[in-house]
Amino acid sequence: MSSTTDSSDTTRIALMCVRNAGRSQMATAFAEREREARGLEDRVEILTGGTDPADAVHDGVLEAMADAGFDLSDRTPREITVEELRSCDYVATMGCSTLDVGTVGEDVDVRDWALEDPGEKEPERVREIRDEVERRVTALFDDLEDV
Question: pTM of the prediction?
């Protein structure tokens, strides 16, 4: 794993969407688990945020993540800045981003996961989206280990 944006050995990952109330919150929880499971706590920094953050994480997301063993009740959506994104090695957008990739810079590996918004969805659909988010996060960490 090498950083393309600074000289340290820390890899920075941003997981973002517009509201930071669903997919990016799920992705962050899975990324934190992957980082710990792979022993990368001192090598991977995880950021999350939205371009227009909501007031709270979606209730359906809280429930679906609780079913998977995660308590996101203390999480609050936050704004993420272009400066933060520019400092990252990887940026994963969830599919509804207003991010202009050109503003982030060529050194950042930007991935658009094109995931459906779980807000206002039926519980079964939210769980399906959650499971796809988990697969994408695992694949991202597999890619990190291959670098």
Answer: 0.91
